[in-house]
Structures
1.
Amino acid sequence: AQIYRRGVFGYRPAVPVSPDVLETKAYAAMSPTARSYIHTGAGRGDTMSANRDAFDQWRIVPRMMRDTQQRDQSIELFGRRLDSPFLTAPIGVSEMAHPDGDLALARGARAAGVPVIISTQASQPMEDICAELGDQERWYQLYWSKDDELVESLVRRAERAGCTALVVTLDTTLLGWRVEDLDLAWLPFARGMGIAQYTSDPVFQRLVQERVANPTNETDDQPRPRPGAVRSLAKLSRTYPGSTLDNLRSPEPRAAVETFLDVFSRLDLTWERLAWLRERTSLPILVKGIQHPDDAELALEHGVDGIVVSNHGGRQVDGAIGSLAALPGVVDVVAGRVPVLFDSGIRCAADAFKALALGATAVCIGRPWVWGLALGGADGVQQVLETYRAELDLQMNLTGVTSIGEITPETIVPA
Ligand code: FNR
């Protein structure tokens, strides 16, 4: 109502309110590498399409004549009251979309009152992001590295920086088959972007120095970069301060990128290993990337405090089920024992409503915050997040529910 009212007096939104227009304009404003990195799904994009199709399988049935003057969209999670059922999903390398990256995310999310899940591949060290967040609730998303000491160091830093939960992403032991990124030869990492969390870590710094002292032959074995690639890197490095051709020229940044590539993928993880993490932190541990009900059961057996149903925005397994299609089975098995969060494909409040109706406790906004960031920096992020909250409030009003708890399975029907 505020937006309509302000509009009468000439107010214009900072970024498009329509998610489709926002998406189109944001990608049009990005460099080809940024567009590819943010937009791409795995393979031919089937899973990304399935994410959207899954929402089309459900329809909301509005109820009339219910007093909706007092509405409350707050929820409780891990003993804390959150203003709304929205969090921002962890998205790495946000500096591709805007040079201020996660600092702008933090400013925007704080202004909108939305908690942030800080990515292990965030563009700035978590301490700086948390300083921008002030009192705003934040969690830390962990990619479980090959180096246990590094994992422990990241967890310790997250605790010290005031993160109140750990989200362990399980679905990215390796990066998915992202064809557009492959065609562009994965320039973001060639330029050392998205490793600020590591390069600011004392354990990682030690690993890099060890590599500089004992260089492997890897670097020499690699073909020299094509002249075209060097030219475009030079151009891009002017666009994004902080990333420079040094990655190709000086031993230290190059060693940092190589160390990152070495420690990132961890294929030997099994459920038993969660006990190791459990012993090292008292923060609630959520696992992100659950799709199968049996995995939800195993996660509970191994003591997790929460589950995030997600397929990483369709970026990992090509041909996988839509994330919302996986939600009911997981909710069934979990049966209220721990919170079940949801992401992958949420583009408007109706999507959030359907996920909540199917049993999600909260939902994470993914790519849309990056689109807002690309077009409007912190203001763009703030507006995108406020839009979700405002639209959900209106949606609740018009469907006759006054609290998140009232968004039950009875509010939707199969399409
Ligand atoms: C991601 N995602 C992700 N997840 C994670 O746990 N750590 C990360 O660093 C990233 N990085 C990342 C980068 C980009 C560009 C995207 C699009 C996604 C996955 C993210 O948290 C979330 O699961 C998806 O974004 C949800 O899908 P939609 O709604 O964005 O399509």
2.
Amino acid sequence: RKRGAILISGGGSNMVALLEAARDPSFPVEFVAVVSDKANAGGLAKAEALGVKATVFERRTYGSKADHEQAILDHLAAEGVEFLCLAGYMRLVSGSFIRPFEGRIINIHPSLLPLFPGLHTHQRAIDAGMKVSGCTVHHVTEGMDEGPVIAQAVVPVLTGDTAEALAARVLTAEHKLYRTAVTRLFGAGTATDDRQMLISLG
Ligand code: GAR
């Protein structure tokens, strides 16, 4: 199995979904490290509870973005990490961070990209009058929420939806989609993947 790490900034529910999926030895990735840029990220304790070492790298500890990223890269190299999942990591990564993981660094975003990149995606989807929204797993490039799409799941936008209600519905789909996308990336289980995508249509 590939040695993976997960980068988080917050509650880490997608991280938990990935760590739980990786308990199955047929999952193509074994997660050996979690990294957070926030010392108060709720996901840190959840990672430790699931037996994965979690380390904090706060941006303000370092003199520059380059130093911050290099410290994370050094840590990942020391852990022998070869594959990176961004899961609610709310920081734009630079080309020099991506380069050592080219093709092996992916992100999840709570919209049907290229629609609604960036923040406040759910409110923007509602305001645009969308009848569906969803989530996207994509390769990470230097642009924010850009990069080739690996997998997407669709959920309905319901009449009277608030951003919070839609976010919760999308987040449930994210948890399924992220493990499906990782499996797809490594070339297994396509038929099951496609069925999972339909299930997330509700
Ligand atoms: C998720 O909805 C994820 O897609 C989003 O932040 C949330 C993190 O939740 N990411 C982005 O908006 C990145 N542009 P989690 O910490 O519970 O996984």
